[in-house]
Amino acid sequence: MTIKIEKLKKTYRKNLRFSKPAVDDLTLLIESGEAFGFLGPNGAGKSTVIKILLNFIQPSAGAATINGFLVSNPAVRRNVGYLPENPYFYDHLTAEELLTFGGKAAGMGKAQIAKRIDELLERLKLSHAKKQRLRTYSKGMVQRTGLALALIHKPQICILDEPMSGLDPMGRRLVADLIVEMRKNGQTVFFSSHILSDIERLCDRVGILNRGRLLYCGGLKDLLPATGGGLEQAFIGLIEKDEREQHGADLAAG
Amino acid sequence: MEQIWLLAKITYKEGVRNRILLGVLLVALLFSAFNVIFSQMFAHDLSKVSVDLGLSTVSIAGLAVIFFMGINLLARDFEKRTIYMVLSRPIARWQYVVGKYVGLSLMVGTAVAILGLFTAAGVKTSMLMAPNFIPQNYSWLVFAAAVCFSLLSLMIITALAQLFTCLATSSYIALLVTACAYFIGQNVELVRKTLLDSAEVNRYYAIMIEGITWLFPNLQAFDMKTAAGYGLPMNTVSLCWTAVYGLSYIAITVSLSVFFFQRRELT
């Protein structure tokens, strides 16, 4: 199972004459079984790439494939679990109903789904709220339910957009433990986050994006010694360098 | 097919558990009680007045369900991004559109069934209170057919609401355009007949009106209040053609929704 992104470009029209690239000539390969951290400042294009991978938006150029199949093929998502940033679900459904929907949509059997729901809710400390309507949930509980929904069908690839956002330290710990477990099980984890310590702790490789362009893609070990310091310093150094070199004119104009 | 049914089920559950539906049904119940009192003021044509009021309650309450709940349920998928939860599953976009439509139609159908029962109870009570003013051999079958055709017209409005939600960026615009389509659909046949019967109508204006009658649904065709009120015999062939017209209009509208939704960017 791999995620392959080739020469991907996505532009949004600003007005009749100008269009702004949100993602520009992005090429990326994520191998099976690795935990890949996707970093970048706000508006760098991380969520755009994730939305293209889920076929929510179409690329302007280039292609994205999962396990050799174009992402526009719905069958591809049978092996994909996705947690959006700030997930929002149907208010009047219970966690059990939502997860049953997720399991059935992925082709799981009734007994298998029931077992998996209990297992996941127990793990994410939501068993007590299994039959409670989602509108009564706190933000952290909704986030954890979203993660349960992403994992209900034991997907080979997990795409997580800011999985730690809105979680308290206990929740973050739970999610981090789950990601570690997924890696152990050979599942591929592709996640974006602003919390660099989590990326440092959980990922094999990282990709750093700024203004839609990939500045770095590789192992954490290769990135850290070169700049001498933690990931935060390396990250800020790379972004500032890119801003100076590529967008100096913009900064001067601003 | 299974994916469509799954989606229809969660849409239906989300809809029927909403308190707005309960509110609409309570108002309809009050209208049915009002119907019993009000229709007694009309000694002549009692059944006509009672059935007219009852079926109008079904139509208005059904419309309220579509406008306040249906459009809200559809638009929230885009505005709150609940659609990500659905489309990140192995569900194709056409399955999403059809599943959502089936779920909403089931919700509207449930509301109409409950309202129809309330209305029938109201009409029956009115008739029992003044048995001398009821047509002999009053047909409840025609009454049931009138409720079914009322549901069919509401299903057309649901399909249009879905199409406009797929096209519009805000639920208010979708609501407004759907309301306009309903208004045009209710009156277009009357306008066409009035204009085309008149000798001095402008040729281009006549073409435009003719075009509008093809574009918007002729909702008057589904109005069987008069037949139900007097218990008149039904023309089965005509009813079948009306049903075919309604179902074809729904099929075309849902297909258009699929066409536009396939191209929509879910940013």
Would you write up a description of this structure?
The complex is a heterodimer of chains A (254) and B (267). Chain A is α/β, with parallel strands linked by helices and 254 residues long. Chain A has one domain (3-253): Rossmann fold, CATH 3.40.50.300. Helices cover 39% and strands 25% of the residues of chain A. Chain A is built from nine helices and ten strands. Chain A has a six-stranded mixed β-sheet with strand order 6-7-8-3-9-10, with helices on both faces. In chain A, strands 2-1-4-5 form a four-stranded antiparallel β-sheet, with helices on one face. Chain A is globular, with a radius of gyration of 19 Å. Chain B has helices at residues 2-16, 19-39, 46-79, 83-87, 93-129, 140-167, 171-197, 203-215, 225-230, 236-263. With 267 residues, chain B is mostly helical. Chain B starts with a helix and ends with a helix. The radius of gyration of chain B is 20 Å and the shape is globular. Chain B has one domain (2-263). The longest helix of chain B has 37 residues, at 93-129. The mean pLDDT of chain B is 86. Chain B contains ten helices and no strands. Chain A binds chain B through residues 51, 54-58, 74-78, 80-82, 84, 86-93, 97-98, 101-102, 104-107, 133, 146, 149-150, and chain B through 2-3, 6, 9-10, 13-14, 17-18, 80-82, 84-85, 87-92, 95, 265-267.
